[in-house]
C-alpha cells in the first residue's frame, strides 16, 4: 500500500503544489524570450521578499554554494574574517574560510544559545581589522535564531561587513535587508521557500559590491560580478536551473497573494504551539532563542534519539531529524517550514507520543496533541 509521506525536516521541506505544477511543465530554454520574461518577474519578487533594492542573484547551487560565493567574492588572500561557532552551520562558515586560507577568528558560543549583541560588539572591537563577520540568522542544527537586527546596528557603522546565512530563515520569519542594514544575505530554495534543493540566493549591498571588485580569491563559476551583469539582463551567466526557476516564480506569487506577513505569523503561531506541546508532554526544549521554523527537543534520559527518528519514519512515514555532531542522539528536530498545515503538525505529535511511549518515555498520550488542538485548530492556519 502506498502511504503518504510527510517531511518535517529542516530541509528539504514539503513543496508548494503550485510550484510542483510549474516544475513539471515542459522545460524552457534558458536563453529564450519566455525565460527572460520569467526571470524579470522573479528578480522583482525576490527583492520584495528580501526587502531590498539590491539585486538578488540566483545560482544553480545549494545554499552552501551561495555561502561559498560570499566568501570568495568578498575576501582576498590573508584577510582576517570572523565566524561564530554555535552549531554545525556556524562551523561551516569557518570551514569555507579555512578552505580559502583566510585568517579566521571564531567566537565560541554554547550550542543551543545565540550570541548576544554585547558579545558581538566585544568580538568586533577585539578584531578591528576583520573584513567580514559571517553569521547565521537561524542556526539550523540547534534551532536557534540570532539577533541579526541588533548585530547589524553594530556592523553597519564599522569597517566589518555582515554576511548572514538565512537559508532556514528566509520565508519563515521577517527579514529586512535594507532596513536592518545587512551587507550580504544568502539563502537557498529547499526550506522556507517550499522548493526542492538546487537554487542558491545571494544579495549584496553597495559596501559589499565595492569589496567584491577588490577581491583576489580565485573564482570562476561563482564570480558574482559576471552573474550581476547577466542577471541585470534577465539572464544567468551559465545554464540556469530552469524548472526550479518556474517553481520559484510560483512561490513568489504565493508570498505576494497570501502576504508574507501572514505566512510569517503562521510559522510563529505553529512553532509557539509546538513548543507549548513539548512542555505539556514534560519534555525539555533545547533552544534558548528558538526559531519559528523548527523546534528542538531534548531526548528523554535512557532513550536513543535515533530510534525516535527511525520509528517515526518506518512506522508512520513521517520524517523528522535528529541532532548533528555532538548532539547526535541527544535532540530531535521537528520542522514547521514548507507546505505544512495544522493537521500535519497535530499528526506528527500524535505519532511522536506513541513512539516515545513505546520506547519507555514516561509521558501521557494526548497531552501534546491537546495543546496543539486548542492553540491551532480554531485558527486553521
The overall pLDDT, averaged over residues, is 96
Under CATH, the topology of the largest domain can be stated as Aspartate Aminotransferase, domain 2
Name of the level-1 CATH class of the largest domain = Alpha Beta
The second-level CATH architecture of the largest domain is: 3-Layer(aba) Sandwich
Order of helices and strands: EHHEHEHEHEEEHEHEEHHHHEHEEEHH
Note down, in words, how this protein is organized:
With 381 residues, the protein is an alpha/beta fold. It has helices at 17-23, 33-50, 63-74, 88-99, 117-126, 148-155, 177-180, 206-212, 224-231, 242-258, 260-280, 305-316, 342-358, 367-376; strands spanning 6-7, 56-60, 80-85, 103-108, 132-136, 138-139, 144-145, 161-165, 184-188, 199-204, 294-298, 318-319, 321-322, 331-335. The protein is built from 14 helices and 14 strands. The strands form four sheets. A seven-stranded mixed beta sheet has the order 2-10-9-8-5-3-4, with helices on both faces. A hairpin with a 4-residue loop joins strand 6 and strand 7. Helix 13 runs antiparallel to helix 14. The protein is globular. The mean pLDDT is 96.
